Amino acid sequence: MSDIALTPSAGVTPIPLGEVLPWAIFGGLIMLLAIYFIGAEEGAMSLFSGTYVHEFVHDGRHLLGFPCH
What we know:
Blueprint: H1 17-39, H2 52-56, H3 58-64
């Protein structure tokens, strides 16, 4: 057996909130956009004419529990 002891050479430094906040806001906006397209893109709430977006996310709607018909 060897007598090598592992000692941490680098400490953990916290990430400043100013660096995380823009990415958290961006991620939140992308998530809200995805929830809109999966959950509400049909009928009167539709931004695009036709049913292309609805059909593209149709299986995802059922997988996430959104009723659509």
